[in-house]
Predict the structure of Thiol-disulfide isomerase/thioredoxin.
Amino acid sequence: MGSEAFLPDVASHASATPQWWVVCLCAQWCGVCREYRQAFDQTARAWPQMRFEWVDVEDEEEVVGDLDVETFPTVLIADGRAARFLGPLLPQATVLGRMLQSLQQASQVATMDSAAQDLFERIRSSRQG
């Protein structure tokens, strides 16, 4: 099974309103992060209806706040209103693609802790304006 198996049909999503946010929390010094950047960008091209952001935890300390990122990459996914996932993710495009599909298709929304929601609010605010 190729990596394209979990990538959506881009044409079918072209008219969708960008609302979901996918944020990768990484660090420039992290070799895994540097290697993951290409897969993250590939996933962003496959999901044009979502907003993808790359946040360097050291360059943007004020945005990351007190969140202690222990494992890279750590990914935050939000549906535009609320954080839906915050945690480490295997650095592979297919893993992120499956996660996005699963979260979009979920009939019940898991409640994230306030730290995840606060992080999403800070990132969203820092990217608008």
